[in-house]
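Worked Example 4.2. Consider the chain below.
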Amino acid sequence: KHLALASGMDEAESERVYLAGTLHDIGKIGVPDAVLGKPGKLTDDEFGMIKRHPRIGYDILKPIPNVRDLLPGVLHHHERWDGFGCPEKLAGEDIPLMARILAVADTFDAMSSNRAYRPARGRDEVLAEIEKCAGAQFDPELAPAFLSMDLSPFDEMLARHICEQV
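Applying the procedure from the previous section yields the following structure tokens:
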């Protein structure tokens, strides 16, 4: 939501981006748990299954009228600014803004979180990676905007989540 506001979206649009962020990985319900939680390197076939989750999510949400405006974010959140992403290899501003925002936020969250195949990375390493990938993986204007944001709301949310697990 904060990056959406920083990109020039109004409050209502930023709330829709927030909802898209909540739903963007819903397609992973179509990926076997053994693949999602695999502790080691994925095979090419397993990685292919993972790469299909944006399309699966799109197909799940498409019939629901109240979330149709979120579909571009769900479908294209793994596109890359340089055109080497998926599922459609869109590049630059052909990637919907919602998806470009989600790409940065999702990458930050993924690298900042423990995964079955690796521990969370440190904040400095995560931010350096986002900076390094500006103009290749990420929108070259959104990455610096993200890097200048106050990340304390994320840290507070993470702290609440850890407390809820106890």
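The chain is about 55% helix and 0% strand. The CA atoms of residues 77 and 103 lie 5 Å apart. Compare this with Example 4.1 before moving on.
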